[in-house]
Amino acid sequence: MDRQVDQPTASEPVAQNPQPAAPKRRRVSFFGLLFRLLLAIAIIGGAGFFAFQMVSSRPEPPERQARERTFTVRTVEVNALSAQPNLTYFGEIVAAGSLDVRAQVVGEIVDIHPNVAAGNSISQGELIARIDDFAYRGALTEAKTSLAEAQLGATEARERLQLEEANLDFAREQLELSKRDLERAQTLLQSGALTQKNVDDRELLVSQREQALKQRQANIAIQQAQLDRQLASMERFEWQVERAERDLENTEIYAPFDAVINSEAIALGKIVNANEALVSLYRQDQLDVRFTMSDRQYGQIFADGLIDRPVEVVWEVEPENLTANGHITRAGAEIDAAKGGVQVYARLEDAQATTFRPGTFVKIFVPGREYENVIRLPETAIYDNRLIYTIEEGRMVSHDAEIVARDGAQLLVRADIKDGAEVITTRLAQAGDGLAVTVEGEAPPIPARGEGRRGDGERPAQGEQQPQSDDNATEGEE
């Protein structure tokens, strides 16, 4: 039956912009979904099977055997020896013989040596300065005049004394004669040849001559006292002459030794006082180096002999270091708590020392204790401060080692190894017993058949460092 479509009549209005009809939703059945799922699984399975066939049919790559890594190292041949390492210190140059030259008299400076200036040298006996000597020449003249007068007075007193001594002898003789004459008169009196008056006259004469003798003795004592006074005056005037002569000599000031002028405080026309410092000098041939030695080192060296131990002093200057030799002369009287040791002094000896100046900061090398049966190695040869390695059949072998001293950049070590052994000095992070090594410049050993080496493309194990060229380890080549 045909479907009739209603036609609008003329009387019905036609709708403007009619809305389209909504599409109808298609309904998928369960069997359609199952079919699609099975189809997808079949496609994936086929692709996987095809890929498996391709991989399994690929030819096997050639197997690369692992190769052992060989490290290139440097070695040093060692022999047991007796060594005396140098101990290094730092110190300063000090003047051992210094002197402040002072004026001994008062006066005006009238002459000065042309080299009197700080830093210049002056020789022993050279005139440093001269003080006006007019007053001192006059004082010397007066002292000499007084001395001459005292000498004249002493001569006169000595002559008077000699005269009195002669008179004393004469008085003694006269007294003896009078006494003998009195004895004869007394004898004659008993015989009646002389009277009593004659005897009394002779007794009076004896008494007078005894009195004269005593007077002569008194005069001698007086003359002796006058002579002693004149002699004392002579001694005083002689001392005045000597002092005047010394004052006159002190107007000229000379260098007491070969010296370097450290400082000066004089000028022409300056009035100086007695005991005023004019210049400060230090001896060129008496320079010391002062440095501090620790308690432990002081004890070790003192037991081995400290005094007269040689030292080498180095002044590091450009373009070439200055060096001087010397020997230790003394040590400080007490421990320096601030510096933690003992101050030691060494006297510089050779001619090179004259180029040094007080206050110079220098390096000092002092021979330490002597060690027997030790080997000398660089620091890179020591592992963990207790091991060294040698090479045996191309592999590293460890040995116990004891560090006994340091000698500059090297160490003195005791180890139980034979003379002529080659000790490895290259630092290896992988160092250990059995590690394959070859000496730099020598052909590496060829590995035995079946002994593999790690492939070039194989990465180092965890914690293993890639060896480097030059001083560090490098991978050997077959």
From TrEMBL:
Q: In the UniProt record, does the keyword Coiled coil occur?
A: yes
What the entry lists under InterPro entries is as follows:
RND_pump_MFP (IPR006143)
**Organism of origin:** Maritalea myrionectae
Q: Which stretches are annotated as coiled coil?
A: 147-188, 227-254
SUPFAM superfamilies reported for this sequence: HlyD-like secretion proteins
Single GO molecular function = efflux transmembrane transporter activity
For this chain, the family text in UniProt reads: Belongs to the membrane fusion protein (MFP) (TC 8.A.1) family.
Cited Gene3D superfamilies: 2.40.30.170, 2.40.420.20, 2.40.50.100, Helix hairpin bin (1.10.287.470)
This protein is called what? Multidrug resistance protein MdtA
Membrane-spanning ranges: 33-55
> Superkingdom, according to UniProt?
Bacteria
Question: Any idea which UniProt keywords this protein has?
Answer: Coiled coil, Membrane, Transmembrane, Transmembrane helix
Which residue ranges have biased composition labelled Basic and acidic residues?
450-461
Ranges of Polar residues compositional bias? 1-19
Task: Outline the segment boundaries, as ranges, of region: Disordered.
Answer: 1-21, 438-478
* GO cellular component labels: efflux pump complex
